[in-house]
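# nightly structure sweep
# worker-07 picked up a monomer target from the shared queue
# config: single-sequence mode, recycle default, output format = structure tokens
# input follows
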Amino acid sequence: MSKFHQPSTLAALGRTWVEAWNARDLERVLTLYDDATVMTSDRIPAMGFDASGTVRGKDALRAYWSKALGLLPKLHFSLIDVFVSPDSLVVFYQNERGKRICEYLRVNDAGLIVQGSANHLVG
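# output follows
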């Protein structure tokens, strides 16, 4: 179990995460992640990656997000709010298409993201 992280530190991580995406700086986004990170999203199979909806490791995440960025030239996240717990945060944002998304991010003791899950509204 991760040690407690300060709520302000986790909230700052959420803001940094959004800023890095809005800069379209994939390497900057990936610096926030542990090498052994795991990401789950219903978009992963749709993009031709693992049918389970999960990619494992920073290299697989880089491949997935590189492809996604190439398809979304106007990508932009508008931060709505950041929710925190002792070892995770949820970034609630709206994308450039007006869709609201919650991104669950669990962090390790070093404050790096080890697990992520993109959560989309049904319908």
